[in-house]
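hey all, quick one before standup. I had two proteins in the batch that finished overnight and I want to keep them in one place so we stop losing track of which output belongs to which input. First protein below, input sequence then structure tokens straight from the run.
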Amino acid sequence: MKKIALTSPWVGLIGGLFLLTGCNEAPSSNTAEKPTSSVAAETSTSANPSISETKTPAKVEATPKKTAVKLPPPPQFKEFAAGPPRKDAFFKFMVPLIHQANQQVMQKRAHLKTLIAAQTLSKKDQAWLKKEGDLYGLENLDPNKAADLKALLVRIDVVPTSLALAQGANESAWGTSRFARQANNFFGQWCFSKGCGLVPKQRTKGAIHEVRAFDHPYFSVKSYIHNLNSHRTYAQLRKIRAQLRQQNQPLTGLKMTEGLVNYSARKHEYVKELKSMIRYNKLTQYNQTS
């Protein structure tokens, strides 16, 4: 798959930050344009706590308090006419963010592969492996066990841009939802401490979750990718991805959506809708070469 070069006014600024800190099967217009996610609609996903757990990883990477370069504010997507104008603005803003987040994951993956190939590991290397194991939900990782390092490699990997775009558009109503506008949350991530985000207006009685607030959409992207890479609920998605790697096949959103059955209470209908969005909007063109 080819890497797409974008001419977004935000690309240069976003890139500067990281230099310093490191067959189209058209669905109905509603499917292509409007999300049915309960988060975007400001309702609780489910009274079932097992669904709520999938919205937040067991371990959350810290959001930096300051950045070396100020990230550009997201567009006011409601100011763009629904349809192609709004979609174009959404893609131009989100694609560079997703690419940068994936690039950071790939840098970490490359380091991990170097350690796997090493004959001996220093204490510093072992400490790094244990820390990453804990961060990615492998708390008892043994740096000297090949199986444990392989398990970590399965988790530290990219999410296809096509999939991230489809989910971001679905969960945020193409950037127009209250949570996207007020909390920079484009993927419906939840948190469970009072004041950590926005309270859904139609939250189920007795529920304590909030929709997590982020300083910038980029951190929402990073949290989303980490969630898919670390939470036990998405083991099937990671298995599909690892199989594609083993077969030397490209990582595609269309194939990996099958591992997202539990991301929404709508289950298989949600997966079907994501696939339709990827096809209808030709999102595969945005995938990075990895």
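OK second protein, same deal, sequence then tokens:
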Amino acid sequence: MTEELLGLVVVDKPKGLTSHDVVAVIRRALGVRRVGHAGTLDPPATGVLLVGVGRATRLLRFLEATSKRYDGTLSLGATTNTLDATGTVTATFDMTSVTEAQVRAAARSLTGDLEQVPPMVSAIHHEGRRLHELAREGIEVPRKPRRVHVERFDVAPLGDGSWSFGVECSPGTYVRSLVDDLGGALGGGAHLTSLRRTGVGRFSLDDAHDLEAIRDGSLSPLEMLLSPRSMVEHLGVVTVDRAAAGALARGGTVHVDAGVQHPGDVAVCNEAGALVAVAVLDAQGAVRPEVVVASGAPRDED
């Protein structure tokens, strides 16, 4: 019997495709029905997209909680209805007198903990519909601000009002909104002109596979799939014996010596080092599985 394919594929998403388009390519290439992604990239954006395969799709939510890194370009002097270059210009500003020092200072002011209003062109749901669907119909609805964290927002001039930038931020941060806020902080307007995600958590472009190589079969599943454990390496690890691994795999709660582990989500591995589950560890050493990904006990050798 063929073993179920499961794990993570890191893709360098090309421009012009949706994140769901990438999922469809992986699904066909691997012949696996259950495929999903973490952290949507809009069609104009490129870069790191994390795609879960098989039961490992259930681990994607732990990756969505990790930091993101981006490189991109922006243009000062105009705002658009989509906050990027794909939209219609809504206002123009003479910002020729803005200095490099002012732009850098404005970018620094947009670091740390921020309250950010999601743009109408986001995938957030409102009364059963996504905001970007409403935006295409010319409908705007109130959105609640969200707390985000921007660790780094570096800018460099390219000339003629164009700037390159690098951002490191928390999940849920909208870079196009950050660029729009930059223009407003300078007394004018700005919009995003290109965006490339260079990293998600521990994964970077160095780990990413070309989508065309996946599509045309140049890569085997073994070459493209990373283990489920790689998806939760940012979590603490608890190793359990065969009996406990089997109990967890059946949904049971086990007790371990918590040691120096802090209560919270942990990656539970069997004695062979394979991920059995992601579980909640409490202060008393009780381990309760949240997501089970393997049978738990390593197989006996023939």
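Flagging for whoever picks this up: The first strand starts at residue 7 and ends at 13. The radius of gyration is 22 Å.
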